[in-house]
């Protein structure tokens, strides 16, 4: 190995903790990737290497035979010429002068050329057979050995991942782990399987080829080496390719990430132009790259032809003038060096595979070597004899490892007494769920400790501790198996009787018995076949079957509708008896009857007591109760039995993230299986029609390039013919002219390669740019809801623009070039061969399909196998995916071992498939390597016959054979290009899908109503709405509210009650599912989108600025006209911004940084206000415009807003009541409907929800 051995930094003597197999002591200096090889594997790999060594020496061996064969032909030809001299005759196989000449001295015996060729044919066939066998062995042994090691690596990796603490999963995304388990381990496989043996084989050929050259003729070898060293310089230069698309990519990313801002200000067309401007550099670079590649390919061919010329010219002088070499030696040396150089080039891709394999292995082995901080499978720790169930938090401080800067718990002190029910309440993010996770020991506190009956839980055995705890979560996770199995996960080996008891206790028994298959009903992936209430009750049964001492209920009923809630709640009340129970809930109805209620705020327990005591304290609990009871009343008045979400959607973020993970997981599966029909080549070409002249010239270049290969065989055979010419002067002259001809061919080849490279890259890059622009334009034209789908996240879309668009060109220019090239190659070859000897040509044509097949075969073999591997790994992948997605549930149930065992059981199928693949692949490889030897064997044997019996000139034998064999390899090369083509067609199809999608709310179309005297009269009539990405959560529940022109409407309410949503409906980012939004009496769904948005200005809580100057950001407010600097300044003055800008060194040209990162929040906010003012909107939307500011800036910004509001219809959303007291209408929202509305004084007089909020001064968030 040229790479040398690698000293591993830390090999844990593997197997020490799990004693799965022996490890020798000197195991720490190994070639990195073979850590897990057993002795048997090592033996297989060594034998495989030996076979590869022998196989590698076969090609140079063949050269020795080839040299002798050439000499025999030339000798025979010279003798024929002797005989054609009428002064000589042949007697008993000896050429003599005729009698009447002076002396009768013998010349030499006439060769029996047919017999000689017979011998050579046997040599060839023998070498061919050996090559087949060696090729088969080297591949199958290595692949088999690799399969065993990979299986072991997969097992170790998965079992290690399952032992990691939860904090590790927070920092490592599940998607990443899934790719590691598939792709990275496959990369290791590539690096330690067939690639090693192929590398050894090619390297051996390289060494042996040079040896043949030096042994047979060192002078010529040195001359050729000097010339070919020019070729090495090329490879270096092509490696210097740059990435110029980055700039345009960052524009796309910025725009797609802030799509709502772009839509609100109608900046779509402007952004498309900005993107297109940035594409120019990428296009230029692509064309330059094509030129460079064309230049170097041309240069390479030029050098090769010059080498041929030089070698034959110098070599022939050694043969003819100094008689040092025979013609055969000349060929041996020349081809020896050539083969050596070629194989060195072919060996380099293997090094790439090694490198990427080692990179992947580093990551995988790092995980395998990592010791989990909380090892769930360890045997260590105490198990208490009896458990009372007192839990206490002592000064616990904690932050999540993934967000170390956010303190979640801050010196938390809580006592939970055994046998009592303690409720944790508080706003979201106060640390309630975190406290529960610490009790399960998913994390360890940074300071302080959690104790169970006075014992620090860090000293207890983890599996034992978790077996005491039953947990029911907000979004219970069920596994894809039967109901009974899901309940059995709670406690291994539980009897059916216990399962039924648990189901009865959880109020689940009746609905289970109503199902056709009862307890054997499958719940589907993630429990998808069950309703929320059913899932919840199965989860409760699962928790109960453990017979837990401690029951943790984390919002166990929040995701349910009222009916199921009552049932589940009843079940919970039944099972709480006699257990230590901690319940987190937002619905206060579920907590009222708890023994103790603990109020959380900012990671501390700020109050504790019973329901009535806490109401008198007017603290956290009070605020929550007030808002909620009002919301409940209003809802009950409307008597809506619709599924409503708990107190707005405070917890929905968590819920969302959990749903989201599930969705993500399912969608990842969809994404791959989302079968797009490959696009038709015709449609792709249609996008490329403007470039037809380039494609025409490119094709001409390609055709000439294709013809060059066969021309080479003409010249080559012509040279051999000259060696049998007797007259020295004529011989010299002929040699010189042929060498010159080589030079001419080289120069032509150089120019045509250049032409082909430039023309096709130009047409391809223009196509890529056109597609990128169209794609980006199509993306910006989609409705906002489309971007909520995680498959259309900014990251995914930008990669689509970057990769899909550039892959499409693989289906046009270069592909056409390749086809034309191959056709020309084969055409010219066949014409030459048939012209010179049709009989021999027909014989070789029988071999041609095999030659072409063998090279195409390998390509398709590998892709076919990759697909099979993927299918085989699918079952295992499903288990690992399910396990990683639900790691918290599995850890809570202590089921890690079960999943590891299930995974290992699934690994057998891929392993068997790999063994089968080893044999098939080995045989194919052997065949593809030996076919060329067999072809030569047959052709030269038949050639010998034709030369002897039909007087064919021997040079024609070489001419025909080399012409067809080179064209055969060209055929194979063309067929190996097809994967790119297929990829291109799929990329194109994905692209066309995007271009063809018709958005539900279209910005680009001019249809829709427009009217002149736009007033700004707004009415929401019974609007109901759910976000398309979360159809199960009703956000608006029948919103009714109206604003007259010039009035200010303020929305107040807890977060998630639908305030911002109503603003988005007004902007027409979404359309309501029911009811309508009217503006000046026009239904918004019928109004022209860009007209509507041009009348609305918006300032949001976190304003998004673009990475350009302050002036440009302000001008962004109106993209329909050119805006003068004076307007910008007057808008800035209105927004209290002007003075601050003038104080900056570059004034209005100051760049705000990406996302406005160079400015403070107050400054960004004022720029956003100026941007809204400049479009002179009739309607102004202020979405918590001042909430993120400190008091000082708030004042300034508030003044600016008050100025901006004059004479406009205004909708304000605010959390601070001080900011909205002077509004014309204040609407208090809860759960997606308005529960009170009126002016400040009216609402105060009502003494309802608003009054309580104002008087207690409680925050509304």
Automatic annotation (TrEMBL):
Keyword Translocase: yes
Keywords, ordered alphabetically: ATP-binding, Cell membrane, Endosome, Glycoprotein, Membrane, Nucleotide-binding, Phosphoprotein, Repeat, Translocase, Transmembrane, Transmembrane helix, Transport, Ubl conjugation
Subcellular compartments: Apical cell membrane; Recycling endosome membrane
Domain ABC transporter: 391-627, 1018-1256
Leader sequence segment: none
Catalytic activity entry: glycochenodeoxycholate(in) + ATP + H2O = glycochenodeoxycholate(out) + ADP + phosphate + H(+); glycocholate(in) + ATP + H2O = glycocholate(out) + ADP + phosphate + H(+); cholate(in) + ATP + H2O = cholate(out) + ADP + phosphate + H(+); taurocholate(in) + ATP + H2O = taurocholate(out) + ADP + phosphate + H(+)
InterPro entries: AAA+_ATPase (IPR003593), ABC1_TM_dom (IPR011527), ABC1_TM_sf (IPR036640), ABC_transporter-like_ATP-bd (IPR003439), ABC_transporter-like_CS (IPR017871), P-loop_NTPase (IPR027417), Type_1_exporter (IPR039421)
SUPFAM superfamilies referenced in this protein's UniProt entry, alphabetically: ABC transporter transmembrane region, P-loop containing nucleoside triphosphate hydrolases
PROSITE patterns, alphabetized: ABC_TM1F, ABC_TRANSPORTER_1, ABC_TRANSPORTER_2
Domain ABC transmembrane type-1, first and last residues per copy: 46-356, 696-983
PANTHER family, sorted: ATP-BINDING CASSETTE SUBFAMILY B MEMBER 11, GENE 2 (PTHR43394:SF23), ATP-DEPENDENT PERMEASE MDL1, MITOCHONDRIAL (PTHR43394)
Family: Belongs to the ABC transporter superfamily. ABCB family. Multidrug resistance exporter (TC 3.A.1.201) subfamily.
Complex formation: Interacts with HAX1. Interacts with the adapter protein complex 2 (AP-2) throught AP2A2 or AP2A1; this interaction regulates cell membrane expression of ABCB11 through its internalization in a clathrin-dependent manner and its subsequent degradation.
Designated name of the protein: Bile salt export pump
Annotated organism of origin: Maylandia zebra (zebra mbuna)
